[in-house]
Amino acid sequence: MWQSEHVAGELKRLYPHCEVSILGITTRGDQIVDRPLAQIGGKGLFVKELEAALEDGRADIAVHSAKDVPMRLPEIFCLAAISAREDPRDCFVSNLSASLEALPSRSIVGTSSLRREAQLRERHPGLQVKPLRGNLDTRLAKLDREEFQAVVLAAAGLKRLGLAARIRAMLEPEQSLPAPGQGALVIECRADRGELRQRLAPLGDSDTTACVRAERALSRALSGDCQLPLAAYAVTSGAQIRLRGLVAMPDGSRVVRADLSGPIAAPEELGEMIAAKLRALGADAILASLS
After folding, report:
1. Same domain, 4 and 124
2. Which CATH number characterizes residue 106's domain?
3. What phi, psi does 58 have (nearest 5°)?
4. Strand partners, 79
5. CA angle, residues 25, 27, 29, in degrees to nearest 5
6. Residue 179 lies in a domain
7. How far apart (Å, rounded) are the C-alpha atoms in residues 211 and 276?
8. Residue 64, strand partner residues
9. Scanning 150, 167, 185, 288, which has the fewest C-beta atoms within 10 Å of its C-beta?
10. Do 277 and 236 lie in a common domain?
11. 258 φ/ψ sector (left φ>0, alpha ψ -120 to 50, else beta)
12. Does 133 score more than 90 pLDDT?
């Protein structure tokens, strides 16, 4: 809802006479919080109901976290704009310790992500990593009830909701490589709405768009979704874009990484190159074991 209100505000700023109303929809991804996403269908659970509203005309646009959008969209839909990125990093939240390294052995760390779980298990084998789903209030409440000694979350969500004070430490990409699209918002609409797409275009940010396109291309080339511990993170520098990728076993026993740079004008090609490099380094064997 914060994301939708934010985009509505941006639309009103761009088009002062435009009337914007919000159609609240609770998705299956929001409803089913007692099981990991990998067990109930992956990323699409957060967008299907919204796309149904686009298809039947109840809504003109849908606002998503970029990391929740499946890598392959039905042909009738498109991503009309990718807005400037909030902090893309993961963060450490705890009432007990100031960092992952300071947690006592066997401490329970909660996360909703196989990607985070694999990297936690690789770097901190003495900790217990357990699934934690639900909205931010739910996750923080479980932490405060001492069901978990710490949780790892996306920093962007905490910052957007005014909860940045709960962050004890930021996890740099070297510690926890982010998910494709993490921290960015995307605006989806029907592909045949040409005039609407033109009006939405100014909400996009060119650097963020290039980064997210590269990250999504990498994930798409490896059939990435919530059921695969996969990370992809890109940054721009002038006319260049640097992309880092990672594929792992969920238990962290095997992790392959790759890092390449290329022209910002060809982000998808860079994503595909990183995917090929990861496969050559052993990602194929990991993917085969998880299929």
Report:
1. no
2. 3.40.190.10
3. -70, -25
4. 188
5. 155
6. no
7. 18
8. 186
9. 288
10. yes
11. beta
12. no
Specify the pLDDT at position 135: 87
275, two tokens: 């995917």
188 shares its domain with 74: yes
pTM of the full predicted structure? 0.91
Q: Which residues have a catalytic role annotated?
A: 68
Are 202 and 219 spatial neighbours (Cβ–Cβ below 8 Å)? no
- Quote the CA–CA distance of 195 and 15 in Å, as a whole number: 14
pLDDT value for 26: 77
DSSP notation for 187-245: EEEETT-HHHHHHHGGG--HHHHHHHHHHHHHHHHTT-STTS-EEEEEEEETTEEEEEE
Tokens of 130: 């357990």
Pairing status of strand 77-82 against strand 128-131: unpaired
Are 225 and 290 part of one and the same domain? yes
Does 117 lie in the same domain as 47?
Answer: no
Which structure tokens are listed for 245? 């990728």
Helix (H) or strand (E) holding 115: helix 114-123
Q: Which of 112, 109, 106 is nearest to 94 (CA)?
A: 109
- Residue 75's identity, in one-letter code, is E
Q: Are residues 236 and 163 both part of a single domain?
A: no
Instruction: Note the pLDDT of residue 33.
Output: 47
The residue segments making up the domain with residue 272 are 205-291
276's tokens: 């090929």
Domain boundary, last residue among 146, 171, 196: 171
Q: Residue 257: inside a domain, yes or no?
A: yes
Query: What CA–CA distances, in Å, run from 59 to 21, 80, 85?
Result: 9, 14, 24
Q: How many CB atoms lie within 10 A of CB 15?
A: 12
Nearest to residue 133, comparing CAs of 273, 31, 26, 266? 31
Residue 99 within any structural domain of the chain: yes
Domain contains 178: no
What's the number of domains the chain is made of?
Answer: 3
Q: Do 75 and 191 share a domain, yes or no?
A: yes
Q: For residues 124 and 119, give the distance between their C-alpha atoms in angstroms, rounded to a whole number.
A: 8
Question: 217 and 165, same structural domain?
Answer: no
DSSP state of 179: P
- Element housing 40 (H / E): helix 37-40
Average pLDDT over residues 240-256: 96
